[in-house]
Amino acid sequence: MATAKPAPKTKTIAIGTHRLAKAKAESRKLAASSSKQATAILALNEADSSSKEAASAASTAKADKASSVAQASRRAASKAAASNTATSHATQTSRSKPKGDLETDKAGTIVGNKNSKIYHTPDQAGYHMNSANAVYFKSEAAAQAGGYRKALR
Fold it and tell me: Which of 6, 21, 135, 148 could form a disulfide with 119 if both were Cys (CB 3.0 to 4.6 A apart)?
């Protein structure tokens, strides 16, 4: 059986009309301030969510563009690799190097290593790499868009 809780004790304080008017004015100021803060918070939340949506849309567009550039560079690289493979098979038998070796300075194009994500330009020091790991780019911008960085030497 539940017992009824006694009513909370209230304390009545006798104050003057001047003090009462001052307390009511302060209460109104606090309510107005609270209302302004709530409005400001709503405006900030809306601005934040719209900026996040805009940033997300921009990020998606940038990622889509980078993806399409990377796909285009992969297609170009696979075409170049196919043509280089066709010409290299004919000359590979006369070479003393094992099958699949490549000197980046002699390739004449920008060559990236798909394992290390590093690209080499023809004017840089030569680098010996497996042609199976080679990715060919038309420009340095295309290599960077594909997520590659330039070799340090």
Answer: 148
